[in-house]
Amino acid sequence: MSSLGSAPAALSIGIDIGGTKTHLRALPDGGGEGRDLIVTSASWRQRDWDEDAEGLLALVGRLTGGAPVGAIGIGAHGCDDAEECKALETAVAARTSARVAVVNDAELMPLALGFPGQIGVVAGTGSIAVCRPAPDRMLLAGGWGWIVGDEGSAAALVRQAVRAVALHFDRGGDATEPLAAAILASLEVKAIPRLGSTLGQLRSAAEVGVHAVAVFAAAERGSLLANQVIREGGRMLAELAALLDARGAGASHVVAGGSVIVEQPSLWAAFVAGLGETAGHLTPHLFTGKPVEGACALARLQR
User: Is 210 exposed, middle or buried (0-12, 13-18, 19+ CB in 10 A)?
Assistant: First the structure.
């Protein structure tokens, strides 16, 4: 029999720290409806482990109202090796009695689907593949930024589309080709020779990535160039997972997610085809939920 003075059950907290927003979810021990808090990452993140730990725990307190917390699972964009994940984990753990675990945010998707330790592939504004074959061993491929990499991401698809259109013009093609027309219109290119410099004036992956819709629209209008860009983007995205497999990931599943691959079936189909060619023993899964679900699963693993 419980007494009137028994303490409330401790909460499990899942935190998804994205480049743009941070999503926190509190779940009661034993199940039940959770509570969510979403804030901009810029509103608290300082890129200093101690300051970020204090900022995160302040957000946890705001979410829970001071209720006891038993475990915290964190997926952090920008924690790109095991040492960085451990640094944030140590800083948070030093300031709370809760058990704490920190992983890269790409690791949240396999966790959400019940595949801990498997390969997570993000294809949104940028792209990256991550796997953790052992607690202290983290493997990454990609994530180098849209200028040189981020294969299959929104920004990289635009970069590859501009290259394809430029080559199309070099071969004597004209602006009636659907991808050429779509890219020129979307980027508001004032004259064809200004195509490359117009792209170069964009300052961030987000600014470039918004034009990816033009690539998919051109593909729907029958552009062979656009379909080739999408196929190559999906294949290169799959190759990121294959690279981790070759480096000893020891995985049998790949979970892909992110705004672009979720919203564009043609990119997902290209990824699946590419994975079949490069690492056919890996089973692909598309994650359409919210990454905070994986953070909550990580927190529950600490209980």
Answer: middle
Give residue 30's pLDDT.
64
Q: Which residues contact 194 (CB under 8 A, 6 or more apart)?
A: none
Closest Cα to residue 78, out of 106, 37, 50? 106
Query: 143 phi and psi, to 5 degrees?
Result: 75, 25
Residues 251, 139: Cα–Cα separation, whole Å: 12
Q: Where are the domains of the chain?
A: 11-105+289-301, 154-286
Q: Say yes or no: do domains 11-105+289-301 and 154-286 share a fold.
A: yes
| Higher-scoring residue by pLDDT: 2, 272 | 272
Determine if the pTM surpasses 0.70. Answer: yes
Average pLDDT over residues 206-226: 94
Note the pLDDT tens digit of each residue in 52-103: 999 999 999 999 988 899 999 999 988 888 899 999 999 999 999 999 999 9
Architecture of domain 11-105+289-301: 2-Layer Sandwich (3.30)
To the nearest 10 degrees (0 to 180), the angle between helices 178-186 and 212-220 is 150
CA torsion sign for 68, 73, 75, 81 is: positive
| Res. 124: pLDDT tops 80 | yes
- Determine the Cα angle at 286 with ends 182 and 228, to 5°: 30
| Residue with tokens 């294969």, as numbered in its chain | 151
